[in-house]
Write a structure and sequence with these properties.
alpha/beta; BPL_LPL_catalytic; eight-stranded mixed β-sheet; BirA Bifunctional Protein, domain 2; 5 helices; transferase; Octanoyltransferase; lipoyl(octanoyl) transferase; three-stranded mixed β-sheet
Length: 224
């Protein structure tokens, strides 16, 4: 894992990033949390940040955290779905976008926390540690992502790397409407289901629980 990281939110009104101070024992990593924003707007910002980082116009690493309105995205391994699939999924009221990230089709929506910077193994460990804080026993399996058992996935992961700069990232279901996943085969895995922190907590406590993104965010940052 990484050294302990302290997350500093960036003020949206500022056009420049603050100076990042670090020492041998700790790092300070700025993050932007945009709440709910369309996939295209988040992608545009992400591409701008990646380009700025590659060109050394952005000196420090940055974590971008967002939620999306109902959106389906495909990855590089998910080719050939075509116009019919796009129209079919849009009929449910969701956006549909083809992307350059790894992996296959998945769903993004309200109640789901998405990151666009990190490495797969470290991401998985971070999500597992976050789930542990809620008493949820999450784990790795032979399939990418984080699972609560061999059949139910709580977090999908897909990244793109350009000149050692990573983008896209993870999608952790907090209180996501899981019904959206019923219209697709998430990540191309047959006979698997998606779950969320809220669903797993409800099962553990025997009563309805709703754990939103804003509540999960501090725990996730502390686990990074």
């Amino acid at each position: 894992m990484f050294p302990r990281i302290f997350f500093n939110p960036l003020q949206k009104a500022k056009s420049t990033f603050p100076v990042i101070l670090s020492n041998s024992n700790s790092l300070v990593l700025p993050y932007i949390y945009l709440n709910q924003v369309t996939y295209i707007k988040a992608l545009t910002l992400q591409e701008f940040l990646v380009k700025s980082r590659i060109e050394n116009k952005l000196e420090d690493d940055l974590l971008l955290l967002v939620q999306h309105p109902p959106t389906y995205t495909t990855g590089r391994r998910d080719k050939g779905r075509g116009e019919f699939e796009r129209l079919r999924l849009q009929e449910f009221g969701a956006e549909y976008h083809e992307t350059l990230r790894g992996g296959q089709i998945t769903f993004h929506g309200p109640g789901q926390l998405l990151s666009v910077r990190c490495y797969v193994a470290a991401i998985e460990r971070m999500i597992i540690d976050t789930c542990i804080k809620y008493g949820i026993k999450a784990k790795n399996t032979k399939n990418t992502g984080v699972w609560v058992n061999d059949q139910e996935k709580i977090c999908a992961i897909g990244i793109q790397v350009q000149r050692y700069i990573t983008s896209h990232g993870f999608a952790l279901n907090c209180n996501t409407d899981l019904n959206w996943f019923s219209h697709i085969i998430p990540c191309g895995l047959e006979n698997k289901q998606m779950t969320s922190i809220s669903k797993e907590l409800s099962k553990l406590r025997g009563e309805e629980e709703q754990i939103g993104v804003e509540e999960v965010l501090p725990n996730l940052c502390n686990s990074f």
